Amino acid sequence: MSHKRHSRVAAKRRAPVFAALGDETRLSLVARLCAGQPYSIAELTQGHKLTRQAITKHLRVLERAGIVHSIRRGRESRFEFVAEPIEAIKEYLDLVSEKWDQTLTRLKSFVED
Amino acid sequence: MKTNDRIGKRIELKAPVSRVWRALTDYREFGQWFRVKLDGPFVPGQVSRGHITYPGYEHVKWEAVVQSMEPERLFSFTWHPYSVDPKVDYSKETPTLVEFRLEKTASGTLLLLTESGFDKIPSDRRLEAFRRNDGGWTEQMKNIENHVAQTS
């Protein structure tokens, strides 16, 4: 079993990833970036009510959570989506769900016996 | 149930509501099927302590805060799910809320379990933003959503 690995994933990645995604603007940025293509800040600011500065701030939050990473190209930074932290969340929820299945099955036999 | 910060389960139990209620809220009975040895009875508003008796996890402490005990209807507590690594301080994480709701049925009891507050998972509306996007991500988000919205 890989419980140790899961618990490490849970502790180190889950909380910041959840927190980073808990914001409308950042989610819209992730939605744009998750198609795979890297975007510059200017491109990501287009169609947004927010300023370039505000968008940059949100991108840095996502970067700290490991959901995006930036590549510097000449004078501009481009941001790219990283899938792994969000996959870790799914893995974590799968694990918790599976635990409940087992626990409730034990409850069932306990009360039906 | 169609939200994304929770896990939902429903299970039919062939036992009367009163029996299920006792299994849930009597700390000794709870301990037997949950595989935890609790120090004392559940009291709303108070911390419940003990340790896991599940083989291989005996080092793990159980700690939860009892929230509601509405006889034969609702039992709930908050805790840090799956906090098995003794090196990690889980108290810094936001706890989740576990709710057991009971409903009488013709053949016994319907138990609805939810665990919610997997903090700040995007709401349905926000997930829409992902779904409109192309690529493997859409599938991934669907998986998450299906998973957390799962009711059986």
Structure overview:
The complex is a heterodimer of chains A (113) and B (152). Helix content of chain A is 67%, strand content 12%. Residues 1-11 of chain A have low confidence and may be disordered. Chain A is elongated and about 70 Å long. Chain A contains five helices and three strands. Chain A has a single domain, classed as Arc Repressor Mutant, subunit A. Chain A has helices at 3-21, 24-33, 41-45, 52-64, 84-112; strands at 39-40, 68-73, 76-81. Chain A has 113 residues and is an alpha+beta fold. In chain A, helix 1 crosses helix 5 and helix 2 crosses helix 4 (52-64). Chain B is α+β, with helices and mostly antiparallel strands and 152 residues long. Chain B has a single domain, classed as 2-Layer Sandwich (Alpha-D-Glucose-1,6-Bisphosphate, Chain A, domain 4), CATH 3.30.530. Chain B is built from four helices and seven strands, in the order βααββββββαα. In chain B, a hairpin with a 3-residue loop joins strand 4 (61-70) and strand 5. In chain B, helix 1 (17-25) crosses helix 2 and helix 3 packs antiparallel against helix 4 (136-149). Chain B is globular and about 45 Å long. The chains are: A alpha+beta (113), B alpha+beta (152). Chains A and B meet through helix 1, helix 2 and helix 5 of A and strand 1, helix 1, helix 2, strand 7 and helix 3 of B.
